[in-house]
């Protein structure tokens, strides 16, 4: 691995911006961590994780791999599978599903469907997402499990493995307490990111503040939706044995933050814990864009190619999250193995940029080929042999 210093980012200029603040209740930690120069707010959570989704840096993490009860955050996976089947055409949003008696008799939160009724997929989704309605979750699971909840749970666990949720085991589609049903803050963050990334067309469902069914209107348990218009999801959950959980997405003022808190003591401390972490992420850090999409960051040498070098950079805009109180020069180190053997395909990983500040590696960004470079042609190889060039 070869390291090269490249031009530093003048953060003292870039970070000269105003700082956004999320609303909080009355006064009452996939990436390299930022340098530990800020004290994370005190919370009553059993576990939490705070991620800047633009830079993909984890800003705060507490017990992120400790198994806990996911409660109704389990329904994020139920929703993921419904969205996946809607996208493939296996189920339609307007399709009416017959309510089984087992769903009607479910415990916990409900939207109060009745056995034998037919209710659209769309309404069941809204009830499950906004109200954590277990009767809706079981009806949807039965449809996609071909009448078998067990089959659907197998799908949930298969999808969890595919998404990299290494410490998650689902036992039901609702999140009701069941021995052995566990997840972690890190795994639930991966699932939350996947929902936003894979199904942007359905994601607005997570910002529904209330839902009315058969003249019964209920409010979303994620009360941060009411306290800040930039909060656009995701889900609240609770079990007696596991405590109060909350997954929140904030998107506004040039920032996109995910905060997951698990095991809070009450619905209010759940909101307070989450708000403290969200406000801290917004106020203590900035996330400037360091490279635009398609900009050449480096020319990487190629062996046996139709060209001697390939342009390297980012296929998407590249961001970095830094403490705004430490707006100093950040050193960028480009690490590559050169020369790269041809052929090189656009999007192929060619190395990484390490961004260091105050002796810490605060972020690593993979750089990729911005173009295709084929192997030398027969005539090019002959020319090289004749000229040595």
Automatic annotation (TrEMBL):
Organism in which the protein naturally occurs: Neisseria meningitidis serogroup C (strain 8013)
Segment forming the signal sequence: 1-22
Keywords: Carboxypeptidase, Cell shape, Cell wall biogenesis/degradation, Hydrolase, Peptidoglycan synthesis, Protease, Signal
Molecular-function GO terms, alphabetical: serine-type D-Ala-D-Ala carboxypeptidase activity
Biological role stated in the UniProt entry: Removes C-terminal D-alanyl residues from sugar-peptide cell wall precursors.
Protein name (database record): serine-type D-Ala-D-Ala carboxypeptidase
GO biological process: cell wall organization; peptidoglycan biosynthetic process; proteolysis; regulation of cell shape
Gene3D superfamilies registered for this protein in UniProt: D-Ala-D-Ala carboxypeptidase, C-terminal domain (2.60.410.10), DD-peptidase/beta-lactamase superfamily (3.40.710.10)
High-level lineage: Bacteria, Pseudomonadati, Pseudomonadota, Betaproteobacteria, Neisseriales
Reaction(s) catalysed by this chain's protein: Preferential cleavage: (Ac)2-L-Lys-D-Ala-|-D-Ala. Also transpeptidation of peptidyl-alanyl moieties that are N-acyl substituents of D-alanine
PANTHER family xref list: D-ALANYL-D-ALANINE CARBOXYPEPTIDASE (PTHR21581), TRAFFICKING PROTEIN PARTICLE COMPLEX SUBUNIT 12 (PTHR21581:SF6)
Gene label: dacC
């Amino acid at each position: 691995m070869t390291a090269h210093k490249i031009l530093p980012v003048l953060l003292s200029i870039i970070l000269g911006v105003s700082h956004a603040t999320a609303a909080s209740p009355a006064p009452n930690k996939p990436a390299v961590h930022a340098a530990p120069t800020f004290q994370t707010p005190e919370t009553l959570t059993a576990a939490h994780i705070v991620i800047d989704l633009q830079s993909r840096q984890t800003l705060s993490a507490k017990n992120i791999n400790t198994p806990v009860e996911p409660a109704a955050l389990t329904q994020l996976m139920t929703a993921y599978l419904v969205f996946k089947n809607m996208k493939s055409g296996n189920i339609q949003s307007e399709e009416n599903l017959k309510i089984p008696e087992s769903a009607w008799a479910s415990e916990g939160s409900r939207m109060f469907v009745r056995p034998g009724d037919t209710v659209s997929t769309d309404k069941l989704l809204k009830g499950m997402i906004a109200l954590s309605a277990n009767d809706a979750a079981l009806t949807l699971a039965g449809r996609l499990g071909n009448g078998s909840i067990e089959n659907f749970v197998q799908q949930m666990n298969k999808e969890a493995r595919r998404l990299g949720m290494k410490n998650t085991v689902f036992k039901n589609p609702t999140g009701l307490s069941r021995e052995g049903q566990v997840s972690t803050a890190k795994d639930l963050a991966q699932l939350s990111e996947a929902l936003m990334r894979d199904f942007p067309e359905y994601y607005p469902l997570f910002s529904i503040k209330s839902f009315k069914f058969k003249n019964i209107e209920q409010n979303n348990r994620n009360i941060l939706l009411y306290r800040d218009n930039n909060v656009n999801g995701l889900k609240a959950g609770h079990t007696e044995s596991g405590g109060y959980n909350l997954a929140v997405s904030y998107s506004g003022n040039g920032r996109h933050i995910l905060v997951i808190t698990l095991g809070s003591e009450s619905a209010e401390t759940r909101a307070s814990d989450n708000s403290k972490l969200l406000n801290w992420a917004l106020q203590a850090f900035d996330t400037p864009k360091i490279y635009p999409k398609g900009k050449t960051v480096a020319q990487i040498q190629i062996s046996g190619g139709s060209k001697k070098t390939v342009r390297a950079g980012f296929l998407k805009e590249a961001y970095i999250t830094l403490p705004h109180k430490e707006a100093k020069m950040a050193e960028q180190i480009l690490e590559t193995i050169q020369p790269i053997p041809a052929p090189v395909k656009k999007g192929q990983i060619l190395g990484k940029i390490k961004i260091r500040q105050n002796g810490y590696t605060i972020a690593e960004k993979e750089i990729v080929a911005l173009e295709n470079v084929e192997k030398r042609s027969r005539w090019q190889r002959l020319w090289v042999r004749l000229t040595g060039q």
